[in-house]
Design goal:
about 210 residues, alpha/beta, Rossmann fold, 5 strands, about 15% strand
């Protein structure tokens, strides 16, 4: 059973997502919150697997709440709109595992929760790649020394992950097995001290390993 907490200051969004999730046999909504501080408290009490976190909330915003939850078991999905939100990139850097548009359909919502609960990241949607690319372009940062520890093949894998390719697509591109790609991804995350593929994408753009598409 996937345990979920929904945090959003808009009752219609919060209650709507909770009601939809409750229709699934493998998902249980264990709590809701209307602001960030409450979300952190509820997560501490309920130990959810996934948190749907709005960015802009009173008392404590979603970025600060995500940062406080980083390092724990709960994986955060940032709720956003179609607008390029300056806060979304900060949330990713704070430890979020991906994005979900607030007007996403029910199936997309269910899929997002299951994907993130399984330890993957929401990188496939075009809006995700576009947001990461745009904010990395606007806010370049120096390359972390840890990148120098990667082997040439691990660097290739990180570059392809940052381009949004799945393990199967990377395996086809490099003519290796899926298991080999999984091993490379795992080593990249370990060497760079990253939690998941989303953070790997952020690191790749911040370091300049991958150039944002204009």
């Amino acid at each position: 059973m996937i345990r979920v907490v929904v945090a959003d200051d808009q009752a219609v969004v919060r209650d709507g997502f909770a009601a939809l999730l409750a229709t699934q046999d493998d998902i249980e909504v264990v709590g809701t919150a209307s602001q960030g501080e409450e979300a952190v408290r509820v997560c501490g009490e309920q130990n959810p697997d996934v948190v749907l976190m709005d960015v802009r909330m009173p008392v404590m915003d979603g970025i600060a709440a995500t940062r406080q939850l980083a390092g724990g078991e709960a994986r955060v999905i940032i709720l956003t709109t179609f607008d390029l939100d300056d806060y979304v990139y900060d949330a990713l850097a704070a430890g979020a595992s991906g994005f979900l548009l607030k007007d996403a359909g029910a199936e997309r919502l269910f899929d997002a929760v299951r994907v993130v609960a399984a330890g993957e990241a929401l990188l496939a949607p075009t809006v995700t790649r576009r947001l990461i690319s745009e904010f990395a372009r606007l806010r370049p940062r120096p390359a972390p020394a840890a990148l120098e520890e990667l082997t040439p093949r691990e660097t290739d894998v990180l570059r392809l992950v940052a381009e949004g390719l799945s393990n199967r697509e990377i395996a086809d591109r490099l003519v290796v097995s899926d298991e080999t790609v999984k091993t490379h991804v795992s080593r990249v995350l370990t060497k760079l001290g990253l939690r998941d593929r989303t953070q790997a994408v952020v690191a790749a753009y911040e370091s300049g390993l991958v150039e944002p598409r204009r």
